[in-house]
Amino acid sequence: MTISSRIDIKENALLRMYDGILETLLKDHSSDKNIIWATDNYEQLGDGYYFSDEINIPFITGKNGDIIQPRVSKDKETQLKRVRDKAEVFTPCWICNMQNNLVDEAWFGRKEVFNKETDKDWETKLDTIVFPTADGKTWQDYLNDTRLEITCGEAPYLVSRYGTINGKPIPLHSRIGMLDRKMRIVCEQAGDDWMHYALIAYQNIYGFEWQGDNLLIARENLLYTFIDYYEDYFGEKPLIGDVKHIAEIISWNIWQMDGLKGVIPCSCHEETTINKDLFGSKTETKHQCPGCEKNDIKKHNGIYCKIMDWEKNEPIRFIDLMKRQ
Question: Is 9 helix (H, G, I), strand (E, B) or coil?
């Protein structure tokens, strides 16, 4: 399978190629279930496709194997509906590149580290990346520097396998995502420790997304990015154990969340209080979720999202990383 044929990753192919990988990519560690659709774009397909339904393998494989598609492959009506409903607008890759370059300019202390920007495009710099050792920064520090893409969609800021607007594949050595840049450093510097540092690169890339189909595509894009770099570096397919390890990291680091609440989308619910009067009569009073009512991110009764702290190798709630107000 060539890189150019992987733009729309087929769940049927993924199911055949790697045993257990699709199950991992559908996992939601916050609920200990699967990620949910969190969109009504598929409800016309019936049971199993409603907003709060989990995305299960039988509903996206077999005869249903073409249901999950990148935004560029969706029909215009669906694209417009998602823009109206969730303000879903994908950023062109040249803009992602400009913004990622600003992050690297601040880190390296100089411009044009990975590429030179041109008119809505870029020219990749082919020389080995030089690190600001005078400032005490090493290539290992760069891999360990954490990056997060909020409301990540299909994760174009993290990995740039294809143009989000035109759908054209981007050659491996011209990619501009934050993880692509880390993987370039791994390929240039890690040598025999390639796999060890590839894991570190993946552990330090995060992103969250509301809609389940986008989230699955983002996870698939990160997985196939690993496969692309591995095959390019070693000239062979990665071992299934290595693919599974990467998929597990991705399932923790790219997660489903309502970014305003820190919980699984629409998991907040009404609470019922039962009151008794002097004569034993009962009345019920319904209350809105305390966090929703008071706009307090710390008081929601929905399922708070968990991510993995890889340094301590233990899960933590995402909201616990936020500074106390």
Answer: coil
* Element housing 309 (H / E): strand 306-309
Cα–Cα dist 313/102, whole Å: 31
CB neighbour list of residue 175: distance below 8 Å, 6 or more residues apart: 159, 160, 161, 225
Q: What is the DSSP string of 65-91?
A: TTS---GGGS-HHHHHHHHHHH---PP
Q: Is 92 exposed, middle or buried (0-12, 13-18, 19+ CB in 10 A)?
A: middle
Question: What pLDDT, in 10s, does the model give residues 64-102?
Answer: 999 998 877 665 556 566 555 655 567 899 999 999 999
CA gap 123, 104 in Å, rounded: 16
**Amino acid identity of 205?**
I
The predicted model gives 291-299 an average pLDDT of 94
Specify the pairing of strand 306-309 against strand 314-317: antiparallel
Structure tokens at 164: 């989000």
The whole-model pTM stands at 0.91
Query: What distance lies between CA 227 and its chain's CA centroid?
Result: 16
Residue 294 CB contacts under 8 Å (≥ 6 apart), including other chains: none
Beta pairing class for 33-34 and 306-309? unpaired
Pair type for strands 115-118 and 121-124: antiparallel
d(CA 136, CA 134): 5
List the one residue out of 249, 248, 250, 268 whose CA is nearest residue 258.
Answer: 268
C-beta neighbour count of 44 within 10 angstroms: 7
* Domain ranges, ordered by start, for the chain: 1-267, 271-320
Is residue 114 within 8 A of residue 176, CB to CB? The reply is: yes
SS3 annotation, 156-214: CCCCCCECCCCCCECCHHHCCCHHHHHHHHHHHHCHHHHHHHHHHHHHCEEEEECCHHH
